[in-house]
Every structure is written in structure tokens, then in C-alpha cells.
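Field reference: sequence -> structure
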Amino acid sequence: MLEEVASPAVDVARPEPGEYAPYYDRYISLIPGNDILSTLDEQRRQMLLLLSCRDEAEGNFRYAPDKWNAKEVIGHVNDTERIFSYRALRIARGDQTPVEGFEQDDYVRNGPFAHRTLSDLIEDYIAVRRATLSLLRNLDEAAWLRRGVANKNEVSVRALAYVIAGHELHHRRILEQKYFAVGQA
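Structure field:
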């Protein structure tokens, strides 16, 4: 197994209002502290602890008929992180081309998450989070502060990192409370 190479320490301050659309404060506000890279890495461990002992029946569980099943939630988290990481990459590299939004329900509807195994979706989560961390760990200070337009709103790279973390935490809490609550089968 390859050893992880430490990247130069870059102090990444929390994003300030104005670096992201107000809608995303619902995610950014969930993330404590200023060490977003450690937070993202710790989230990977927490998600794996939550998912590692689950079976296919739990993956297929819907807490209401009109809600996604647990595997669809995980697929949504993976897709959203890919999209937000792509936005961060483009903006970090100085690409000023506006990036369009996406419709999450269409992505879930057209993603075959319900037909994939839970273990496959967990492996996908691991791969996506590793790719996100690799990207972010290798940004210099200037890249973290760059801004671009995504979904018709100005956003900074550091705000995108916090949105990724907050979005994952939001959905992990839903998984914990509504899908995998104690006594839930």
C-alpha cells in the first residue's frame, strides 16, 4: 500500500458569508472548527463505521414510500461530492467558465443505486472521498481563495470544501436517525 505523502501545511480559514450562496449555510454551519482536511478525513472513518455492518435489507430500506432508500442516499452523497469537487477543481485552476447546477432527483432517478450492492456503494464512497482529499490537500493558498460561478452563484474553493463536508454530515445524520436507528431492522 502506498504511503500518504504529507502536503505542505496551508492554513485554510472558514469561508465567510459572501463566498457562497446563503442556501449553503445550512451545510457549512454544521462543520465546526477550521481544519477542513482533517474533518473530511474523519468523516470518512465515521461513515465507514456507520455503513460497515449493514446488510442489503438495510440498504434497501425506505423510511417512507416517497423517500430514497439508504443506497440511493449514499449514491446521492457520492454524486454530489463528485460534482462539488469538480467545481472546486475548475475554480482552483482558475477556470472562470460558469458551471451549471444539477437536479439531485434526476441524478438519483437515473443512477442505478438501488440495483448496486451496498458494499459497492461503500467502495465508491471511499474512492470519491480519497479523490476529494487528494485534490484539496494539494491546493496552494491562492487556489483555496479563488472564486468562480457555480449554479449561477459565486463560490470559493474553501466554501466548496465546507459544503462537501456539511452535505455529507447532513445525510449521515439522516441515515443514523431515519434509516439505521437503534432497533431498526
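Note: The helical segments are 25-28, 36-51, 56-59, 70-92, 104-110, 118-137, 141-145, 157-179.
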